[in-house]
Amino acid sequence: MAFVYLARDVKHDRLVAIKVLRPDLAASIGAERFLKEIQHTAKLSHPHILPLYDSGEADGILYYVMPFVEGESLHDFVKRERQLSISEAVRITREVAEALSYAHSYGLIHRDIKPDNIMMSGGHAIVADFGISKALSEAGGDQLTQTGTSVGTPAYMSPEQALADPTIDGRSDIYSLGCVLYQMLVGDIPFTGPTPQAILARHTMDQLTPPSIMRDTIPGALEDIIYTAMAKTPADRFRTAQEFVEALQAFERGSVPGVRASAIHQRMSTAQRMSGMQTMPGGTATPQTPVPSVITPQPRPAWRKAMVPSGVAVAVLALGFVGWQLMGKGGGRGPSDGLGAGGLDPRQVAVLYFEDLSSDGEWEHVADGLTEGLIQKLSAVQGLGVVSRNGVEPYRASDLARDSIARALEAGTLVSGS
């Protein structure tokens, strides 16, 4: 939405960041109202919120000035480290949640919490661009939509924000921060997709992949916190950012925070899908035991360690075609023991992204979800080594020969589907 310049404030002899709105965006919104709305940000004073120094208009150009932070964004930090330590990820999340709690008390919703808007200074988190999204939305209105500019980032948008709900509140920021915590721990965003629309659809419809599948050292109590923050329905999340802070503080103290029933239900639902216990056409649903509104999390369910052939079968039945191809012994099919001629172990499996054969590509996000679901299920089978979704992503719709892909991924078995 803006160009960012490093500049020197000659009056105070200090470095500052000047953010200049894109000319087309500035021309389409009301300058006076934008500057009025952005003034609310200037009132915020919190150690984890980047303050606003100045704002204004010059020859039709809208700009605002913030301190220059000598450090890096959380985005760059996570990109370099990939996965942060559990204690560091929790501390950064708590600091951002504290900033959200303070800003929400003034009625300011950020609307675009993401690693790019979280700066790291001296090892601590500072949230940037508070109030900017609201100022753009309030000033731009329908004009903003007509420019094709969306306030928010699909990879971190809450379901209600994805549906353009005009009544979003602080719980939308809580969802976005839950996505950030997930990414810091796992090393990848919760939902991926080929287009922004596909990602938004997955936020709205898909259940969250348990982060402990990607990183089994994540404690169950922390996983429950993530599930509560990222509940699909706002009413099932932490009621306020302060509740989120208190849950994280309890985790840091080593005590187990109370978790809402919605988080446990979601984990139970995921567990049932992973073990194949779900309602099929013509079948019956497995009854669930009622859960009290606030409970103490129980030890992790056994499904995380169990073999799940029935769960794999459920995914296979949902596909139009699935092919299992062993690459080590002349491309034969079926299970095999030992190494193939090419030295590739058939127990090393790569699930290639399934093809969407619909004429308009409208089912691509479903194909992606089935691919990633099958990767998760096979990863839980003892004795198999399964390439992660990040590993197979570069080979989506690739023209490379299958044996070349197999060698690149060191996988003796490739799974393809449509």
Describe the structure.
The chain is of the alpha+beta class and 418 residues long. Helix content is 40%, strand content 14%. The chain contains 17 helices and 13 strands. The chain has helices spanning 23-28, 31-42, 74-81, 86-105, 132-140, 142-146, 159-162, 170-186, 196-205, 211-214, 220-229, 241-253, 261-274, 309-317, 364-379, 389-392, 402-409; strands at residues 2-9, 14-21, 54-58, 61-67, 72-73, 118-121, 124-127, 259-260, 294-295, 322-326, 348-351, 385-386, 413-417. Helix 4 (86-105) runs antiparallel to helix 12 (241-253), helix 11 (220-229) packs antiparallel against helix 12 (241-253) and helix 14 (309-317) runs antiparallel to helix 15. The radius of gyration is 24 Å and the shape is globular. The model is unreliable at 142-149, 272-317 and 329-337 (pLDDT under 50).
Keywords:
single chain; 418 residues; alpha+beta; 4-stranded antiparallel β-sheet; 4-stranded mixed β-sheet; 13 strands; 40% helix
Q: What's the gist of this structure?
A:
The protein has about 425 residues and is an alpha+beta fold.
Strand order across the biggest sheet?
1-2-4-3
Nearest-angstrom radius of gyration? Answer: 24 Å
Order of helices and strands: EEHHEEEHHEEHHHHHHHHEHEHEEHEHHE
Distance between the termini: 38 Å
Residue-averaged pLDDT, rounded?
Answer: 80
Helical proportion, percent range: 40-55%
